[in-house]
Amino acid sequence: MSLYASGDRAGSFIVDAEISHLHGEQWDDDEEVSRDLGSQDLEVEISIDETQLHLKHTVAVDSSSTEVDFPLRGIPARFEPYSVTVKASRHDGRKVYTAKTQLYHLPRRTDGGSITKLDSLYGGLLVQNQTAGSTSTWSPLLPYSFYVSWDGWLEKSLSNVQKFKDDGYNIIHIVPNAGLANQAFNFTVLDQFLDKCDEVGLWVMYDMRWTYKNHTSVRYQVDMLKTHRSLLLWYTGDEPDGNSDPVHAPKATYELIKSLDPWHPVSLCLNCYNFHYAEYSSGADIILSDVYPIGINATYSTVWDTPCNTTYGDCGCDDCKGEFEDIAVRLDRFAEYQTWLGRNPKTFWGVPMAFGNESYWPRYPTPDEEITMTMLSLNHNAKGIVMWDYPTSDALAKATSQLSRVVASNEVARFMLGSSTVPLSVRGGPSMDAAGWRVGDKMLVSILSLQYSAWSSSVTVELPESACAITQVLWGSGHWRLVNGHLVKDGGESLETDLVVVQF
Q: Do the bridges between strand 66-71 and strand 10-15 make them parallel or antiparallel, or are there none, so unpaired?
């Protein structure tokens, strides 16, 4: 976890010992590279400074995500992080590899504020029930919501908070008012809004897009809001790469926020395929990706009357083809960038398009397109969804409210945040995308048709092992069946989405 709180009894470290051709330390100058490294082991020793805790574990060479449990007893809670040293030794003792990390074991909150943990293994959020008062139970939260206009909708009535909650969304991202002198909010009205969110149990994603480079303003806002029970996380830069903000600005603000509030993660949204990704992404725990491919002309800008290619032009979606796959490619690329940089994995969220009739986008997405964009993001390892923007069209408001009953449910969060995302192969039929999340002897399977027409051929989704039953249909037609342990369906509708649970 990104942090542990007073009351937590144990934690775990994640040890990655993968072979890399891009970064790291030399394996051995004298050893054949072609040798079967996976059959060899490393003796790993983990020590935490200023404590008596020393852990020993054996991990396989070229393995990843090995968990090493440790007790928190004997590690006093404090605001300063503990330095952790990891040593991995070859069996013959000829080589020792070292790495450093930090451990946060924070004191109990006494000001009534919330705590949000970030799971470093699967990328999800864990929270405590903010309406139940003091509780030691942590639950996974899969955010499903919108960026919501403050001055255009929210500040008009406190009853809108309850409406948003009743429509099924579990968090709310409030977009500040750039027209105000402080480029943020009427803080008197905002405080009433946050009190209402505290009351109804609606988590808040707090946006400082216009002010995040002003550290005086950031300090004021964080100190004022950090004790609200409903605060889930902070949001700093909104497309800082697309706006060419100073590349080190997000990191500087990140460090300030962490010094003021170590209890909550920080997020930002990147717009570009890769414009100083390394620098901008270092300023957040969670990176959002806003790829808007619906209805665009990907080769010629209707706004600027210029062509668009890999080096020139703005067609509203950077290096896009105007296809659903643009969303999947961007999320996959961001994950690759983290690997190339040799950094720990980031958590990524998707920002599906829920607007239209403006600039590059001549129309709104249809409900089917909206659902496809959301589920495609989740299939490619997004751990949260925040659509742009609300209020939206009546059709999209209805469709997303219906989908929220599934995506924001505890059942789906248990799968998607409790295991790794596994890409699944699909044979036959139209262009499709499938993924699964396995917990115990069950797997949640998401299957999407990316084709704008119905299809009649037989399609097979290959599962990692033979399933014996379909136990639930959470969304879709329910016409899938098991053949030789795999999911099979004969024909389907355009942009069909199915979400089923199978048992092994």
A: antiparallel
CA distances (Å), 272 to each of 86, 237, 316, in order?
A: 35, 13, 10
Say how far apart CA 371 and CA 479 lie, in whole Å. 19
**Span 55-94, pLDDT tens digits:** 999 999 999 999 999 999 999 999 999 999 999 998 777 7
Question: Which residues touch 345 (CB under 8 Å, ≥6 apart)?
Answer: 120, 123, 335, 338
Domain positions in the chain: 4-106, 116-416, 422-503
Full DSSP string of 150-172:
TTTTGGG-THHHHHHHHTT-SEE
pLDDT of 237 strictly over 80: yes
Element (H, E) at 328: helix 325-341
Fold of 116-416: TIM Barrel (3.20.20)
Residue 81 backbone phi and psi in degrees, to 5: -70, 155
Say if residues 479 and 489 touch (Cβ distance below 8 Å): yes
Supply the pLDDT for residue 26. 83
Q: Which pLDDT band holds residue 37 (cuts at 50, 70, 90)?
A: low
- CATH class as words, domain 4-106: mainly beta
C-alpha torsion 474→140→346→422, nearest 10: -40
Task: Find the helix or strand (DSSP H, E) in which 101 lies.
Answer: strand 96-103
Looking at this protein, which amino acid is placed at residue 492? G
For the chain, give the mean pLDDT: 94
pLDDT at residue 30, rounded to an integer: 53
- Say what the pTM is: 0.96
Enter the tokens of residue 494.
């355009």
Chosen CATH of 422-503 out of 2.60.220.10, 2.60.40.10, 2.40.40.20, 3.30.420.40: 2.60.220.10
Q: What are the tokens at 356?
A: 């239209």
Q: Where are the beta strands (DSSP E) in 160-279?
A: 171-175, 203-207, 231-238, 266-270
400, pLDDT greater than 80: yes
Q: 42-66, pLDDT tens digit by residue?
A: 999 999 999 999 999 999 999 999 9
As a 3-state breakdown, the chain gives helix, strand, coil percent values, each rounded to 5, of 20, 30, 45
